[in-house]
Write a structure and sequence with these properties.
Order of helices and strands: EEEHEEEEEHHEH
Shape: globular
Strand content: 35-45%
Strand order of the largest sheet: 1-2-3-9-8-5
Structural class: alpha+beta
Helix content: 10-25%
Distance between the termini: 11 Å
Oligomer: single chain
Number of strands: 9
Largest sheet: 6 strands, antiparallel
Radius of gyration: 13 Å
Length: 125
Amino acid sequence: MPSPTDRRYSQTHEWYKPDGDTVTVGISQFAVDELTDITFLEVLTTEGQLKKGDVLGEIESVKATSEIYSALDGEVVAVNQEAVDNPALLNEDPYDKGWLIQLRLSDPAQLEALMTAEQYDQQQA
């Protein structure tokens, strides 16, 4: 299944869906498939600034524990508490109900440096 084309993707398998001056952040289906059954999600930054490269959370599955990184600078304006409380949402719907945080971007031009869906999918092939 191709990745949604309405967002950008990072090398570390996070997606960024722009909406005005904010972006919604999540992890890709590829990441979910690699992790298998996700059992725990922790969002480390629930408010304040994130810088490109900062760890924004941690995700655990029956297979591994992985950190989730921010590829953009911005202020955390929302956390998907439903996904934190029920990490299985990421297994079921990583591109919609399983979003992680929303950021108000410091520099919207940073989005352009991320991969398009086509570039991301080619990297995973």
